[in-house]
Design a protein that fits this description.
single chain; 135 residues; alpha+beta; 2 domains; 3-stranded antiparallel β-sheet; globular
């Protein structure tokens, strides 16, 4: 599971996708405290009914959660396993098959979660990551 700063930032700026997150067993998230410090990676268990967590970015309480979608959840968002065939050229440009794409956008991602999230955002929302936000 990618918990690097880049992936956390990509996830934190998902807008409605982040704010509409419904915690499910096995989901990964990061706690953000009022002073903007962050916890380590946490996972949702059966007991995730704690009212002190909020997924809304503008939450004013003591902490909020940033959902970090796992690769399988990202694949589900695009239609499941059948999307692997559409994703294949994306995997090829990351160096898995040493294929080079002329715009090199996909070389900006350092994990399969980052790459799949970029794929989901492009396919579902026609947005690309510019290093700071989804455009």
């Amino acid at each position: 599971m990618d918990t690097r700063e880049t992936y956390i930032k990509m996830c934190d700026r998902l807008g409605s996708m982040q704010s509409n997150w419904k915690p499910d067993v096995g989901d990964c998230f990061i706690q953000v405290y009022a002073d903007q410090s962050m916890s380590g990676q946490l996972f949702v268990s059966e007991q995730f009914d704690d009212p002190q967590y909020e997924t809304q970015p503008d939450y004013k309480g003591s902490k909020r959660a940033i959902w970090l979608p796992r690769q399988d959840r990202l694949q589900e968002m695009c239609g499941g396993f059948s999307m692997v065939f559409k994703f294949n050229p994306w995997g090829m440009v990351t160096g898995l098959f040493h294929h080079i794409d002329e715009d090199e956008y996909y070389f900006n991602f350092n994990s399969m979660e980052q790459l799949w999230l970029a794929f989901v955002m492009k396919e579902k929302h026609n947005k690309v990551w510019d290093g700071a936000k989804w455009e």
